[in-house]
Amino acid sequence: xxxxxxxxxxxxxxxxxxxxxxxxxxxxxxxxxxxxxxxxxxxxxxxxxxxxxxxxxxxxxxxxxxxxxxxxxxxxxxxxxxxxxxxxxxxxxxxxxxxxxxxxxxxxxxxxxxxxxxxxxxxxxxxxxxxxxxxxxxxxxxxxxxxxxxxxxxxxxxxxxxxxxxxxxxxxxxxxxxxxxxxxxxxx
Length: 188
Known about the structure:
By secondary structure, the chain is an alpha/beta fold. It contains six helices and seven strands; from the N terminus they run αβαβαββααβαββ. It has helices at about 1-5, 20-30, 40-50, 110-115, 120-130, 150-160, and strands spanning about 10-15, 35-40, 65-70, 85-90, 135-145, 165-170, 175-180. A seven-stranded mixed beta sheet has the order 3-2-1-4-5-7-6, sandwiched between helices. Helix 5 runs parallel beside helix 6. The two termini are about 15 Å apart.
């Protein structure tokens, strides 16, 4: 979508974690300008290592685009940046539902999984500021857990009343993400 519509799309990967999504976008769309934000210093260091040594984490025969990784809470420090595509995989598990060890998710840092009482705390914070940061015709992809996805879709529609938003399914057939496209087309 972004590659076909915009010459050099500006992409934001919010809560990048290991940086693999940002790196994959840069590898598949070399002309993209990719920003990746992360508020966990530990995760940011992993992402920086992966970006500095991409052969360890993302394999592609295409040339690689660039990824700018920044320690930030949601958005890069440059307040003038607006985005053609925003991807987020923020903490989305309700606090009361957080798995315990030996469940594999129980080994993850709590800040990477705990989405607050209803699982959408971080997404609400993102959606409060996102309308001012997305370009016309922009694409949004937000991942969440199946039990929270309908509420996330409703939050997206509240933040972006004119957006065409749908709930998508993962390979297991579970409702897993919200895809939204803003009306209009970026003028770049």
